[in-house]
Amino acid sequence: MSDDFFAPPPFKPDEGLQRLKRELRALGLTEREGRFERRGQAIARVALDGPDLRAARVRQPARSPQWQERVIDDHAALRDFVAELKRELARWGDRDD
C-alpha cells in the first residue's frame, strides 16, 4: 500500500487566499484596500505573489505598523497564522479595553 493514500490534499494558494480572507472576516476584521483592519488600524494583509500566498500581521496595532511577513505554503501554516492572529487580537483587546 502506498503512503500517498494518507497524504493531505495539495495546497492551492488561490483557494487558501479565499479561506484566509473568510477567516479574517470571521475574526471581526474589515477588509480595505488589501488590508484587514480593526478600529481603523491595519492588523493583517494577505496577497498572492506569483505561486506564493503571503500573509503578514502587525507586531502591535499602530499608525505606522511593523509587519511580520510569512509565506503560507500548506494548510497547517494557514491554520497557525489564523490561530496566532486570534491570540494576538484577544491580547490586544484585553489591553485596549
In short:
The chain is an alpha+beta fold. Helix content is 37%, strand content 30%.
Overview of the structural elements:
The protein is α+β, with helices and mostly antiparallel strands. It has one domain: 2-Layer Sandwich (Double Stranded RNA Binding Domain). The chain contains 2 helices and 5 strands, in the order αβββββα. The longest helix is centred in the C-terminal third of the chain and has 22 residues.
Short key terms for the protein model shown above:
Double Stranded RNA Binding Domain, 2 helices, 30% strand
Estimate the helix proportion, in percent.
Answer: 25-40%
Our count of domains comes out at 1
Which fold name fills CATH's third level, the topology?
A: Double Stranded RNA Binding Domain
Main beta sheet strand tally, sense and closure: 5 strands, antiparallel
CATH class: Alpha Beta
The portion of residues forming beta strands comes to: 25-35%
User: How many distinct helices?
Assistant: 2
| Principal-axes shape call | elongated
Indicate the mean pLDDT: 89
Which secondary-structure class do the elements indicate? alpha+beta
Radius of gyration: 15 Å
Assembly classification: single chain
What's the total number of strands?
5
Query: Which stretches are low in confidence, meaning pLDDT under 50 for 5 or more residues running?
Result: none
Order of helices and strands: HEEEEEH
From the 3D coordinates, which CATH architecture would you assign?
2-Layer Sandwich
